[in-house]
Amino acid sequence: MKIATYLCLLIAISLNSSHAETLVYQGGDGIGAGKHIVFLAGDHEYRSEESLPALARILAKHHGFRCSVLFNIDPESGEIVAGTPSNMPGTEALDSADLAVVFLRFQNLPDDQMKPLDEYLRRGGPVVGMRTATHAFQIPGGKTYSKYSFKSDDPTYELGFGHQVLGQTWVGHYGRNHVQSTRITIVDAMRDHPILRGVKDVWVQAGGYVGKPTDGEILTMAQPLDGMTPDSPASPTQPPMPSEWTRTYQSESGKQGRVFTSLYGTPEDLTNEGYRRLMINGILWSVGLEDAITADLDVSLVGPFRPNTFGNQTHARGIRPEAYQGFESPIPAHNRIGQPNQKKPKN
Questions:
Q1: Which residue ranges does the record assign to the ThuA-like domain (predicted)?
Q2: Cα separation of 280 and 127, whole Å?
Q3: What's the whole-model pTM score?
Q4: Count of alpha carbons within 13 Å of 294, Cβ hemisphere only?
């Protein structure tokens, strides 16, 4: 009897530990009722670990989606880390996902964590890619899933996940972070696209990325500004470049998966209502709910949201996923950030 009780206790502890590494917001009534979105947060600089819980809360609270948020986790402390180490427990949540929102950078996940994503893409699951997702993976040649690497030379999967799924691998910066902000405007010919309903006055604080999608429909253009306010002047030497687009990718199952890509998405970007609306609309379109998009759809933030300024390894320390449970806990949980690395990353 004592042995049985002990075993039950061990199982309960194990299940609770595993569950604690994945943040889940249960949806209720709404246009997303019955649908499951999985968010993958794992970059070094742009605070995906703050942006994605904020988006997930909006979609769960206002629109009824069940949202699972996965993070890079330090396996020893159980705390959220920014990009390193490449460890993301809970990717099996993708087995039941209706949409994957990917905000990763240079990940080299263990095979058992890559397998659910590989299977998701093989079945043609829809994808939303944000900012560094163009270079989501950096996996050495010879490994099981090296084809997803952003420099992949696999003849069947050239330039990896970014190129094959999102329509662009990493190209380069087009604006200087913390010096140049970005104004995003709608392409005139695309004004009637469902993703753009109600979208206006979009200004983001992240510096520009080069946008050169291989195909698809370009929805918006990004203009670098010489300053960090919405009324800063446009850079006279940097004309607008594509910033958001849609496309489809061909999966091994034969199904075409919908894709929405945004080259922005820091938590500071999400303080702009126009950008939040653009992202929420893009997510709804990707999961096939474009008919439910209205110009006045609720995209208001849920709970306290006072994001940290993005920077390489300047994430808040000592936070576990359970700190973000519920809709009223602050994001981030605190502002005890690390110091930026002396050498800034090139991407």
A1: 92-285
A2: 13
A3: 0.92
A4: 6
**Beta partners for 249?**
257
Sorted by sequence, the CB contacts under 8 Å of residue 346 that are 6+ apart come out as: 173
Strand partners, 256: 250
DSSP string covering 11-76 = HHHHHHHHHHTEEEE---SSTTTT-EEEEEEE-SSS-HHHHHHHHHHHHHHHH--EEEEEE-B-TT
Query: How many Å apart are CA 73 and CA 321, to the nearest integer?
Result: 9
How distant, in Å, are the alpha carbons of 77, 176, 182, 189 from that of 269?
A: 30, 15, 10, 25
DSSP label of 227 = S
Residue count (the chain): 347
Cβ partners under 8 Å of residue 104, min gap 6: 40, 41, 42, 43, 48, 132, 133, 136, 137
**Cα–chain-centroid distance for residue 143?**
25
**Whole-Å CA distances, 315 to 90, 257, 289, 309, 340:** 21, 33, 34, 9, 9
The residue behind tokens 């209720």 is: 28
In the predicted structure, residue 334 carries a pLDDT above the cut 90: no
Q: With contact defined as beta carbons under 8 Å apart, do 60 and 66 qualify? A: yes
How far is 299 from 281, CA to CA, in rounded Å? 9
Residue 5 confidence (pLDDT): 42
Residue 75: burial class (beta carbons within 10 Å; 0-12, 13-18, 19+) = exposed
Fold of the domain built from segment(s) 23-172+246-324: Rossmann fold (3.40.50)
Render pLDDT for 13-46 as a digit per residue (tens, 0 to 9).
Answer: 333 344 468 999 999 899 999 999 999 999 999 9
Task: Tell which residue, 268, 249, 10, has the closest CA to residue 129.
Answer: 249
- Given a contact cutoff of 8 angstroms between Cβ atoms, the answer to whether 273 and 230 are in contact is no
Give domain limits for the chain: 23-172+246-324
DSSP 141-178: TTSTTGGGSTT---TTSTTHHIIIIIS-----BSS-TT
Residues 6+ apart with CB under 8 A from 19: none
Mean pLDDT of 322-336: 92
